[in-house]
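F.,

This is the one I mentioned.
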């Protein structure tokens, strides 16, 4: 079951225009950002705020939205 931090991260990614690409290996998903035009990995079990900030940085999204 996904935690609250994961759900908040997914909400921010969707608001930023990011799209789910495919299921990755194990407990990871592959997403794509239209801002940076890059693919990045999102783990289901994200538990730390620095990890969330790093993923948002890869997506080109500011958390201050």
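My design for it:
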């Amino acid at each position: 079951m996904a935690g609250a931090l994961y759900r908040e991260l997914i909400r921010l990614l969707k608001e930023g225009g990011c799209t789910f690409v495919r299921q990755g290996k194990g407990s990871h998903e592959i997403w794509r950002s239209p801002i940076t035009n890059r693919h990045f990995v999102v783990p289901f079990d994200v538990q730390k705020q620095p990890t969330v900030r790093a993923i948002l940085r890869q997506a080109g999204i500011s958390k201050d939205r």
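The chain has a mean pLDDT of 91.

Talk soon.
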